Amino acid sequence: MSVLVDEDTRVVVQGITGGEGKFHTEQMLEYGTNVVAGAVPGRGGQEVAGVPVYDTVHQAAREEDANASVVFVPPAFAGDACFEALDAPGLDLVVAITEGIPTQDMARVYRRLQETDTHLVGPNCPGVITPGVAKLGILPGNIFSSGNVGLVSRSGTLTYQVVDNLTERGLGQSTAIGIGGDPIIGTDFIDALELFEADPDTHVVAMCGEIGGEDEEEAARYIGEHMDTPVVGFIAGRTAPPGKRMGHAGAIVSGSGTGTAESKINALEKNGVAVGDTPNEVAEHVEGLL
Amino acid sequence: MRLHEYQAKQVFADASVPTPASTLAETVDEAVDAAEDIGYPVAIKAQVHVGGRGKAGGIKLVDDTEEAREAADSILGMDLKGFHVSKVLVEEAVDFVTELYVGVTMDRGEGRPVAMVSTKGGVDIEAVAEETPEAIAREHIDPAFGMHPFQARKAVYDAGVDREVANDVARVLTTLYQLWDDRDGADVEVNPLMITSDGEVVAADAVMNIDGDALFRQPELQEMGEKAAEGDELEQKADEYGFDYVRLDGNVGIIGNGAGLVMTTLDLVDYYGGEPANFLDVGGGAKADRIANALDMVFSDDNVDSVVFNIFGGITRGDEVANGINQALEQFDEIPKPVTVRLAGTNAEEGMEILNEELVTVEHTLEDAVQRAVQYAKEEEEE
């Protein structure tokens, strides 16, 4: 078992003819992902890596019976691409990889998302992987292995680091979800934790947060009140100065002191979450809980 | 991206928000001439991105030519919390009876914009939000509809603004929302919005932060932003190279890929008793010139005594990174500061074999690499 992505996931790649779209379509196919269509306006009838391309997401979803999409569309057009995916029939999962989408565009997408049952993961995220089954996005498949640890993270390479530490200990993953580093994202920590809580094959969840916003604090309360599955935490950005954006658009401690690592770590610990000081300690805690 | 006060005021004035008469000046003579034209009393205000300018001596109220000359002379060229003042705004002093706060920002928790009004204007609004949150009336706006006129009125009346000026204040708030919406604002605010004894409403200050990711469709603001660029020389250099870079005051230089992992590397430097000198995310890809630019950045920081590279190859390949590091370092006759490298992920083993150990120290785990770099920094410091 897994969450969001399994062997029945049938993927449309939006922006499949671009450099990134093409490269990662090949990577996804190689990993065993069922990429069934691409969608690029004006490119209908072409093929990329053997995958048929349609002019619209609606056509692609309908003709190929797709149920998920991955967005590799440039930032200026990615908001519209998300709307298109949310509007197309039958897509239960939309994974937006694009970094640098204007915040106001995402606010409108987020508003629309509330009216649907679709899961939007991202934007500005590495994607979702169910090891050994399928990956949607840019996560390097070779470092993951199948197992019972659910992983949810705001950062790509930090996820890889934690996976590396888990793998060293022989601990595989049920599903890893990169929720993205932007201030406004679709699936947040609580959404991901809810999915893992309901998954019988996820025995421990590792969540990697970072400075900025209050998602981790809210997730901590959710864990305390609603979760039986144990959770291990990590928070990046303990040394981040206030008012400075640390790479991710969402990673900023505000002038008034909200969004600090300290506040997040305290909230997690107060709700029974073991927080690692290093990524390796996260793996150590996970091992102790399995 | 933040505009200067004078730029934001121009944008506000163009949108019919009442602002005081003002002129930008770059020399003492220009400032005095402007003050004479406007008529005393005037305020002389440093144009730098520093909070609490007044307290730090960056704003002076003057009553005559002599005072104007003195004030302009002391402010122009001054160092205000690390920022060099090269421009002042000479502005008509407003005789006010009340100071309000009005603003529009993105509430990231809600994923929606929020319009705010408070009668506690003229002070740090974040402090007000913390100490007396009930003193700020908040109205969340549905981005699908924009701000309804009633929402502006509701915020204004909920805040307890005088009925006589409520319509004018609501009009300012509506305009601020329109600007926020049209110009891809992150924060758009007036603090203080002054109410004069005649019941006039005047924007005495102006803040406009623009979403940097939206500048491609705001060419006019982008141009203004280039004029407003200021701050640390190294941070400006990072902009040219296209790196995410933040300077700190420690001595361990840090280069890595991916925001979360780079932040974690900083945290580990601190955890193992060192002090991070910077955050530098090289992003994806491993081209030698990009690595060379990153090294140039950290070596240009005089505080740096030791450098740690922490690259986790996902799609990026370790062997390519290693070649990039070798090529970049081979260009130096002498490596300025010790460099420790940790590669992991795709082709990391190949990468570590490629790395020239005469130029760098190779470590196999994140923890070992950070501890090594901290140790080198301490040794260099002692020399």
Uncertain segments of chain A of ≥5 residues (pLDDT<50)?
none
Structural category of chain A: alpha/beta
Number of helices of chain B: 13
Count of distinct strands of chain A: 14
CATH class of the largest domain in chain B: Alpha Beta
Task: Based on the model shown, name its key terms.
A: 290 residues; alpha/beta; Rossmann fold; seven-stranded mixed β-sheet; 9 helices; 14 strands; B: 383 residues; alpha+beta; Dna Ligase, domain 1; D-amino Acid Aminotransferase, Chain A, domain 1; 18 strands
List the SSEs and their pairings:
The complex is a heterodimer of chains A (290) and B (383).
Chain A: E1 11-14, H1 19-31, E2 35-39, E3 47-48, E4 51-54, H2 57-64, E5 68-71, H3 75-87, E6 93-96, H4 103-113, E7 119-121, E8 127-130, E9 134-137, E10 146-153, H5 156-168, E11 173-178, H6 189-197, E12 204-210, H7 215-226, E13 231-236, H8 261-270, E14 274-275, H9 279-289
Parallel strand pairs in A: 1-2, 1-5, 2-4, 5-6, 6-7, 10-11, 10-12, 12-13, 13-14
Antiparallel strand pairs in A: 3-4, 8-9, 8-11
Chain B: H1 5-14, E1 22-25, H2 28-38, E2 42-46, E3 59-62, H3 65-75, E4 79-80, E5 83-84, E6 88-92, E7 96-107, E8 112-118, H4 125-131, E9 136-140, H5 149-159, H6 163-182, E10 185-196, E11 201-203, E12 207-210, H7 219-228, H8 233-241, E13 244-247, E14 252-256, H9 259-271, E15 278-281, H10 288-299, E16 306-313, H11 318-330, E17 339-345, H12 348-354, E18 361-363, H13 366-382
Parallel strand pairs in B: 14-16, 16-17, 17-18
Antiparallel strand pairs in B: 1-6, 2-3, 2-6, 4-5, 7-8, 7-10, 8-9, 10-11, 10-12, 13-15
Question: What this model shows, in words?
Answer:
The complex is a heterodimer of chains A (290) and B (383). Chain A has 290 residues and is of the alpha/beta class. Chain A has 2 domains: 1-124, NAD(P)-binding Rossmann-like Domain (Rossmann fold, 3-Layer(aba) Sandwich), CATH 3.40.50.720; 144-290, Rossmann fold, CATH 3.40.50.261. Helices cover 34% and strands 22% of the residues of chain A. Chain A has a 7-stranded mixed sheet with strand order 3-4-2-1-5-6-7, sandwiched between helices. A 7-stranded mixed sheet of chain A has the order 9-8-11-10-12-13-14, sandwiched between helices. In chain A, helix 7 packs parallel to helix 8. The longest helix of chain A is centred in the first third of the chain and has 13 residues, at 19-31. The model of chain B has no long low-confidence stretch (mean pLDDT 92). Chain B has 3 domains: 21-92, Dna Ligase, domain 1; 96-228, D-amino Acid Aminotransferase, Chain A, domain 1, CATH 3.30.470.20; 233-382, Succinyl-CoA synthetase domains (Rossmann fold, 3-Layer(aba) Sandwich). In chain B, helix 2 crosses helix 3 (65-75), helix 8 (233-241) runs antiparallel to helix 10 (288-299) and helix 10 crosses helix 11 (318-330). The radius of gyration of chain B is 26 Å and the shape is elongated. The interface between A and B is large, with 66 and 53 residues.
